[in-house]
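Posting for a labmate who doesn't have an account.
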Amino acid sequence: MDFRNCKMCGRIYRHINLPYCPSCLNDWEEMFVKVRDYIWDNPKANVKEVSDETGVEEKIILEFLREGRIELTTESIGFSCERCNTPIKSGRYCDSCAKKMATELKKGLSTSTSDRSIGRDGKRMYTADRTRKRRS
């Protein structure tokens, strides 16, 4: 079992993929519903206005945006890509950075798998060959 401290209240709870204890998770979802409903009724609202009207802290609203649970109607200067600082509507990265990182990851995975199967002499190495060499 994995026990951790709740991200909101600091209490110890049994971790099951969420950073919040069950009681804080209910509060978290209530805050999300408030924010979601306010944005639905006021699509042009900015983060500060949503925070003032709903009583939910700005950092929590920004976390909802980073998670991709809500989306701004237009790019905001205060909410930007973590890689290149381009204003975005939702998530952590802009579309171009996400595409670049995906291609870099694919490239890195393809080179790392091909490097593992080659031994020091440039030939493939098998465990049977290795045990034979050890015995000799």
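Reply:
Got it, the structure tokens are right above this. The beta strands are 3-5, 12-14.
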